[in-house]
Amino acid sequence: MAAANLQGMSEKQQPACPLPFGSYAAWATSPNFHAPGTRDNSAKKDDSEMRGLVIGSMMTLAAMSAALADDLRNVNVVNETGYGIKFLGFNNPGDNDWSDNELGGVLGNGQSVYVKFNTADEGCVWNFKIEWADPGYPGVLWKDVDLCKISVLKLHYNRSSDTTSYAAE
């Protein structure tokens, strides 16, 4: 018997129901009652929407985590000096061991290299050093550079003043 049919019945006509929470008519006419074979899919729809929301939220968090996982110190170094560079190294202040070269070969003029820091490395302030590919020219050392505020280092050489500098972006 469908819920709509019960609404028109008098209490005497309604079947007895051993429910402790009220009469069968009150239960059968509630918005959550569905007679056998007439159940709607709103619960399934609500579950499906909730799953979609949860999955979407998880994907958003995963994407944000990946973005945050990029180390703030990672930097793109661009050679705009007019000369080749054979060595590029980054060290914590006070570390004078310049054995780790970030280059796999000579970084030519106009070329760039992306330097990715290891998560075990700590701190934002670093020293960095370059050595020229041409022999006989002294290397250049910059101290206390805050890499957390920089995403690009553009290296420049001024021939008239014989100075090497960088521009941070």
Brief synopsis:
The chain has 169 residues and is an alpha+beta fold.
Task: Tell me the span between the first and last alpha carbons.
Answer: 75 Å
Query: What's the overall average pLDDT, rounded?
Result: 79
Order of helices and strands: HHHEEEEEEE
| Strand order in the sheet with the most strands | 3-1-6-7
The CATH class of the largest domain turns out to be Mainly Beta
Largest sheet: 4 strands, mixed
Number of β-strand runs: 7
CATH architecture tag of the largest domain: Sandwich
Q: Into how many domains do the coordinates divide?
A: 2
Instruction: Indicate the radius of gyration in whole angstroms.
Output: 36 Å
Ordered list of secondary-structure elements with their pairings:
Elements: H1 3-7, H2 24-28, H3 42-69, E1 75-80, E2 85-91, E3 112-115, E4 125-132, E5 140-146, E6 152-158, E7 163-168
Structure write-up:
- The chain has helices at residues 3-7, 24-28, 42-69; strands at 75-80, 85-91, 112-115, 125-132, 140-146, 152-158, 163-168.
- With 169 residues, the chain is an alpha+beta fold.
- It has two domains: 3-69, no CATH class; 75-168, Sandwich (Immunoglobulin-like), CATH 2.60.40.
- The strands form two sheets. The chain has a four-stranded mixed β-sheet with strand order 3-1-6-7, with no helix packed on it. The protein has a three-stranded antiparallel β-sheet with strand order 2-4-5, with no helix packed on it.
- The termini are far apart.
- Residues 1-6 and 64-68 have low confidence and may be disordered.
